[in-house]
User: Which sequence fits this backbone?
């Protein structure tokens, strides 16, 4: 039997990986839920308002955090509407595809480096892949299917338009995204997010951390642009342009709608994680290595650093979402194909030239 | 018919019989002349002077209700002089009118309001205080009088003098002190008292029953037929469905007579007028039921009831024969209902002698020469035309011979309720209802489209004013669904489709369309009433 | 012939041309982010100061309803008031004109015979569903008896159920207070909180 031939190491690795995946998923889902609160409160603070604060438990309101709970209860108890003209199995499957793809991406985020313990190294990346960038991009591409499926199976013209918009937008920026990432990846010489983080953990001239944002500033800006477009959030929220077509989820209600909502937040988290790993040095904290901390503490501080950076990027994404008005659809595609993609290719050329020259 | 002459009406060449009143000729031409005292059913006393028009050659405006048509007459109803005369006359009418429209029930259908908008629109020159007279005087069981609002058109007194010939009211006093009132010691308590409210052009006479319940502009109207007696007066059903709180949830707010020269003219009796309450009364059956094991009724859906009845009928007919089943039908059933009943009776094989349709004692009542008929059911002639024996009373059948009875909208005497199979079907519960094994909730006559033939054999259309209450459904739907459950053919889903089948199969109805004219149609085989027996 | 445009003095407004700075977009994005971020951090600082019990400007311009009290000017003509005669009886004669004219269909009146023969008709019940009311004031316009006004200077009628928003005759006449059924907030971000 094949299981007998597997080493004990395989089993510990499996359990450890499963544990990390659960942690990553828990982290993602909780942050996604919190983001629905952040969305309301951050926009409120930006706009000199207070924001949702009425949901309470026993009269205690706790800054409106219970709205997350009341939203969840509402979505779970709402009528599960199925459009009469819809195509039933696909209609039910679409939010699952969307959300599953986004949630699976979480497993590839490099939350930390490695810990030496019990005579072996324990990686803090939920699943170790040599090609985790491709893994994430592939899953995000599959996520488009959820959007198109939702639009098509709803049996509504508005939903269909939303789905088509989503497909056009996400595929356009998918291409750009690969071109953008090619530059820094070329520099790091790896497709592994953890490896890329590790690469950035040194200082240039002893003062400037060798983070992607400093070495590849153009790629960072382009990545944030394409990332915002990937998540379908403002200013790129055309697939859900509520004023004109409502969106591909117009025929969804209850938790199915909630899954689409969560998908957007999860994708934001994944994008923020990628930005952190590729441009912000991952778990790297400048100067920390000089303190001589125990190796385990060092790794755990790294996890905290990664998380903090991720949340900071999320804050920035949210800030952009509440600052910029929505593009027109032709502007959106123009931006993608005529500006972002050429700039990304130029960046790749320059990077390749520089890397070749310097090595 | 007098000979036709040509005359000019508002510059138009018009033909009318010589000697006809100009106001009637104008009505026929669609030229509206304002009037208060003139009523085609009550004559033309010429007291209101509102219908004045200009007649060429006459030095002063002439009353169109007193001027007759002759060759070469030139009449103008809308010339400046005529309009000035009408407005002046109207101002005179309104000189002492209190203008308490906010509390007046007539507001909204008041001819003073309409004519002021249409023909008045003057600025009042009357500066004197208005005359104050008695308000809110009860002059009978149904009518309240407000003397201040009265414009002394005398329509009510003429109605009581000429139509009912009871003469309870008169005009008292002179000049602006003249009032309309009842004679001392009398009150308007005849069987047609409600009509004086209808003909009153202002709010001087109001109906106690309708008073303050709902404003008239909230009402929806459906032309229908009164089912109170064999006369079948043409009526309008006024319903209040959008604002139910005004009528305490009653949907039908009142009935008004509708002009039908062949049946009721302009009038209807009080008995019929106030019969509408049965449509929303507490006795209305909203759901069908079956007697349970413990003797208490169990609510059933219409489909289950039809299936259950069909199953019991199949078993009992097979065991004990169809001659043991009696049908107690009623003249309240429409032709469509009876057509379906006939099909069901034929399917079951029940002999014609087992069907009792003659009005029961509770369906007989007072009659008079004017409108009211003794048989208080609307469709005996229709039943006769459909081949039912309308003379056989229920008393001819003895409950001993039967194992079952299907009674429709009738009180059935004791003795019948002990049978193993009893069905009672109708809109309102009666004594027999509680004892029946099956109780089927039927739609009220205001809730269905139907046809009924009155005692003259005149077929008239009933139109749905409100949807059936609760789970109730038209009688034909009950007969039809049981017939279908027994395996019979009954493809009809509405009354129009049944009527189409009826015109094809029944010789008396041949060639008729469901959308009957307003005054109805005489049935082909109709003979004078009473010949049936 | 003179062009029509001249007569009406039409001014042609040109869309501002976008220069290179605007076209690369990033500068403008940066400016926008700077503004929103300034608001974000300044307001956050003020909220925190408030939460710590320090004096200072409020972090939000929001007024919490209904806890913060009157939010409209005192001359506002909004919530209905039923007027009384000198003897204290309601002026309303239940003519149903307000009920008829109401575009929101939020007025419900039942009529009855008045014991006073000169008044003849009066309202048995008169209620307004303020949850449906659009405050158009047509009822005031329509009333022939000056029985209803919207000059209560007051638009506050909080309720936590729809039923709380239905006011009956004594409440509209001011004979019976309508007790607000909302609790006070415990949100530190709320300017009205203690």
Assistant:
């Amino acid at each position: 039997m094949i299981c007998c031939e597997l080493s004990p190491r395989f089993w510990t690795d499996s359990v450890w990986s499963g544990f990390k995946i659960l942690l990553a998923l828990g982290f993602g889902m909780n942050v996604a839920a919190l983001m629905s609160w952040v969305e309301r409160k951050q926009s409120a603070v930006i706009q000199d308002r207070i924001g949702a604060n009425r949901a309470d438990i026993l009269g205690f309101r706790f800054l409106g955090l219970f709205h997350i709970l009341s939203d969840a209860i509402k979505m779970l108890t709402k009528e599960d509407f199925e459009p009469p003209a819809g195509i039933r199995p696909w209609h039910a499957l679409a939010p699952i595809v969307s959300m599953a793809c986004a949630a699976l991406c979480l497993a590839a985020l490099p939350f930390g480096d490695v810990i030496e313990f019990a005579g072996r190294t324990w990686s803090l990346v939920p699943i170790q892949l040599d090609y985790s960038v491709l893994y994430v991009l592939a899953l995000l591409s599959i996520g488009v299917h959820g959007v198109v499926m939702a639009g098509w199976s709803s049996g509504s013209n508005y939903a269909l338009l939303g789905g088509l918009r989503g497909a056009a937008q996400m595929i356009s920026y998918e291409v750009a995204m690969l071109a953008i990432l090619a530059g820094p990846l070329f520099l790091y010489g790896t497709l592994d997010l953890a490896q890329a983080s590790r690469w950035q953990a040194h200082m240039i001239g002893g003062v400037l951390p060798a983070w992607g944002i400093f070495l590849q500033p153009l790629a960072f800006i382009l990545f944030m642009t394409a990332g915002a477009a990937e998540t379908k959030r403002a200013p790129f929220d055309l697939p859900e342009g509520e004023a004109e077509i409502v969106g591909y989820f117009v025929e969804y209600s209850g938790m199915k709608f909630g899954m689409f909502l969560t998908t957007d937040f999860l994708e934001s988290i994944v994008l923020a994680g990628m930005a952190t790993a590729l441009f912000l040095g991952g778990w790297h904290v400048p100067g920390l290595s000089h303190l001589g901390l125990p190796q385990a503490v060092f790794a755990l501080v790294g996890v905290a650093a990664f998380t903090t950076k991720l949340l900071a990027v999320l804050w920035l994404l949210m800030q952009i979402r509440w600052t910029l008005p929505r593009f027109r659809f032709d502007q959106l595609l123009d931006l993608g194909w005529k500006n972002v993609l050429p700039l990304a290719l130029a960046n790749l050329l320059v990077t390749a030239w520089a890397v070749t020259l310097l090595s | 018919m007098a000979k036709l002459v040509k005359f000019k009406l508002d510059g138009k060449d018009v033909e009318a019989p010589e000697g006809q009143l100009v106001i009637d000729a104008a009505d026929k031409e669609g030229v509206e002349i304002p009037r208060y005292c003139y009523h085609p059913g009550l004559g033309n006393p010429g007291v209101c002077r509102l219908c004045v028009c200009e007649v060429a050659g006459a030095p002063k405006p002439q009353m169109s209700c007193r001027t007759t048509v002759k060759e070469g007459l030139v009449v103008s109803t809308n010339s400046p002089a005529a309009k000035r005369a009408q407005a002046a006359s109207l101002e005179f009418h309104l000189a002492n009118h209190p203008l308490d429209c906010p509390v007046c029930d007539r507001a909204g259908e008041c001819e003073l309001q309409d004519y002021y908008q249409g023909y008045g629109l003057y600025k009042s020159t009357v500066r004197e205080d208005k005359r104050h007279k008695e308000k809110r005087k009860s002059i009978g069981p149904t009518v309240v009088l407000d003397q201040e609002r009265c414009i002394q058109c005398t329509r009510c007194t003429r109605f009581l003098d000429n139509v009912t010939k009871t003469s309870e009211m008169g005009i008292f006093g002179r000049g602006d002190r003249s009032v309309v009132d009842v004679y001392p010691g009398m009150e308007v308590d005849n069987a047609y008292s409600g009509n004086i409210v209808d003909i009153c052009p202002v709010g001087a006479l109001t109906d106690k029953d309708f008073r303050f319940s709902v404003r008239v502009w909230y009402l929806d109207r459906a032309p229908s037929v009164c089912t109170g007696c064999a006369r079948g007066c043409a009526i309008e059903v006024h319903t209040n469905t959008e604002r139910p709180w005004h009528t305490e949830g009653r949907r039908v707010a009142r009935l008004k007579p509708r002009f039908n020269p062949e049946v009721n003219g302009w009038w209807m009796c009080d008995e019929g007028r106030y019969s509408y309450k049965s449509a929303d009364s507490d006795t209305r059956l909203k759901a069908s039921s079956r007697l349970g094991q413990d003797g208490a009724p169990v609510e059933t859906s219409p489909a289950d009831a039809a299936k259950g009845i069909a199953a019991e009928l199949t078993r009992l007919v097979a065991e004990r024969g169809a001659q043991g089943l009696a049908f107690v039908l009623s003249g309240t059933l429409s032709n469509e209902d009876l057509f379906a009943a006939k099909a069901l009776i034929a399917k079951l094989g029940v002999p014609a002698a087992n069907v009792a349709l003659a009005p029961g004692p509770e369906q007989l009542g007072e009659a008079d020469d004017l409108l009211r008929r003794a048989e208080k059911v609307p469709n005996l002639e229709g039943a006769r035309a459909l081949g039912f024996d309308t003379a056989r009373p229920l008393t001819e059948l003895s409950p001993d011979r039967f194992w079952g009875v299907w009674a429709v909208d009738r009180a059935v005497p004791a003795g019948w309720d002990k049978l193993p199979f009893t069905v009672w079907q109708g809109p309102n519960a009666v004594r027999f209802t509680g004892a029946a094994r099956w109780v089927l909730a039927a739609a009220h006559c205001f809730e269905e489209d139907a046809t009924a033939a009155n005692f003259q054999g005149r077929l008239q259309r009933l139109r749905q004013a409100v949807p059936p209450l609760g789970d109730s459904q038209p009688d034909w739907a009950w007969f039809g669904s049981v017939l279908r459950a027994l395996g019979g053919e009954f493809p009809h889903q509405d009354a129009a489709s049944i009527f189409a089948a009826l015109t094809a199969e029944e010789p008396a109805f041949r060639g008729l369309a469901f959308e009957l004219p307003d005054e109805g149609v005489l049935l082909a085989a109709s003979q004078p009433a009473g010949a049936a027996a | 012939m003179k062009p029509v445009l001249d007569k009406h003095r039409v001014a042609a407004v040109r869309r501002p041309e976008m220069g290179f700075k605007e076209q690369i977009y990033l500068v403008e994005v940066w400016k926008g982010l700077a503004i929103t971020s300034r608001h974000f951090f300044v307001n956050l600082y003020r909220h925190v100061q408030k939460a710590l019990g320090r004096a200072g400007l409020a972090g939000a311009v929001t007024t919490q309803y209904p806890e913060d009290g009157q939010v409209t000017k005192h001359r506002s003509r909004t919530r209905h008031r039923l007027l009384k005669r000198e003897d204290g009886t309601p002026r309303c004669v239940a003519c149903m004109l307000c009920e008829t004219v109401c575009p929101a269909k939020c007025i419900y009146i039942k009529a009855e015979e008045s014991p006073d023969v000169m008044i003849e008709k009066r309202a048995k019940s008169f209620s307004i569903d303020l949850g449906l009311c659009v405050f158009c004031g047509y009822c005031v316009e329509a009333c022939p008896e000056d029985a209803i006004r919207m000059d209560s200077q007051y638009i506050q009628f909080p309720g936590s159920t729809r039923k709380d928003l239905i006011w009956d005759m004594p409440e509209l006449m001011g004979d019976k207070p309508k007790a607000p059924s909302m609790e006070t907030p415990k949100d530190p971000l709320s300017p009205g909180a203690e």
